[in-house]
Amino acid sequence: MRNLKLALAGAFAVVLSPFVAHAEGLPDLGGKTVVVVTENAYPPLQFVDPKTGKQIGWEYDAMDEIAKRLNFKVEYQNTSWDAMIQSVSDGQYNIGMTGITIKDDRKEKVDFSDPYMRSQQFMLVRGDESRFTDAKSFGAFKDGLIAAQPGTSPFYTAVYEILDGNEQNPRIKLFETFGATVQALKAGDVDLVLTDGVAAQGYVDASEGKLKVVGEPLGSEDFGFIFPKGADLVAPVNAAIAALKADGTLDALNKKWFLDYKMGQ
Q1: Nearest CA to 117 among 200, 207, 45?
Q2: How far, in Å, CA of 170 to CA of 174, rounded?
Q3: Confidence at residue 4, expressed as pLDDT on a 0 to 100 scale
Q4: What is the pTM of this model?
Q5: Disulfide-capable partner of 43 in 51, 160, 202, 208 (CB 3.0 to 4.6 Å)?
Q6: Do residues 17 and 224 make contact, with C-beta atoms less than 8 angstroms apart?
Q7: Confidence (pLDDT) at 20
Q8: Residue 18 forms beta bridges with which residues?
Q9: 5-32 residue pLDDT tens
Q10: CA-to-CA distance for 192 and 172, rounded, in angstroms?
């Protein structure tokens, strides 16, 4: 198994290559308030600091910097994953951020920003797991159970890349939140959680050896912010993302949250 952080660094390099763009000349949104909704369930992208109770993470830092450069005020709100895309589509919020994979079917409901990150899915298991070591051996382990949130990329990866293509397969146990899937894994109620590498790394670092990653990465995902269809915020946010990539700000955030930050310390 490749070092997870090195795998992440390699994945980021694909998306974070410098763009021909500069911070100068970005749109000025005149100090208006923009409501941004998140789930706070994907450390280190966004989560609640167990020590301070504050909402922190890579996406908060990135969004705060985007707001600064575009001159808007951010009002953060929270919702569950299963309500996220529909509520943004309905215009309840201006922007959604929770490590949302850019997918064509989702584009029917919301507009996406340009990608700000690329990640891969990893197999998160208990630290003492020895019955399987990768996707193939898990698929052959007939008693193995996967926890997933319905409609997410990990759900479809579990169905079509690990199991038999049956979305009703009883080996998949559905949960409302990602945090609940991890708790079920820790409790021994399921045997595997699929998640992007950023969340996997955060949970492994905080687990004191109770969780680990096995197998090779499964596919790759581009993350983007979401907006109501036709939102006039898309172009300014895209310009800001390009500027953050070009001047190294996103590289600095990657170092801060994926290499330097230690969960629970």
Answers
A1: 45
A2: 10
A3: 43
A4: 0.70
A5: 202
A6: no
A7: 35
A8: none
A9: 434 544 444 443 333 333 458 999 999 9
A10: 10
Q: Which residues, listed in sequence order, are joined to residue 213 by a DSSP beta bridge?
A: 124
How many whole angstroms separate alpha carbon 122 and alpha carbon 4? 9
Single-letter code of the amino acid located at 147? A
From the list 254, 253, 2, 223, the residue with the least C-alpha distance to 115 is 223
pLDDT above 70 covers what percent of the chain?
89
DSSP H/E element including 147? strand 146-148
Distance (Å, whole) CA 174 – CA 192? 12
CA terminus-to-terminus distance, the chain: 26
Structure letter (DSSP) for residue 143: T
Residue type, 94: N
Nearest to residue 227, comparing CAs of 79, 120, 117, 100? 100
Answer whether 226's CB lies under 8 Å from 95's CB: yes
Reported as a single tens digit per residue, the pLDDT across 86-123 is 999 999 999 999 999 999 999 999 999 999 998 788 99
- Pairing, β 172-174 against β 146-148: parallel
Tokens linked to 220? 């790759």
Nearest to 60 by CA among 49, 76, 71: 76
**Chain segment 53-64, per-residue pLDDT in tens:** 999 999 999 999
Residue count (the chain): 265
Which residues fall within 8 angstroms of residue 263, CB to CB, at 6 or more apart?
Answer: 43, 44, 202, 203, 205, 206
- Cα 184 to its chain centre, rounded Å, is 19
Q: Is the dihedral of CA 133, 136, 142, 148 positive or negative?
A: positive
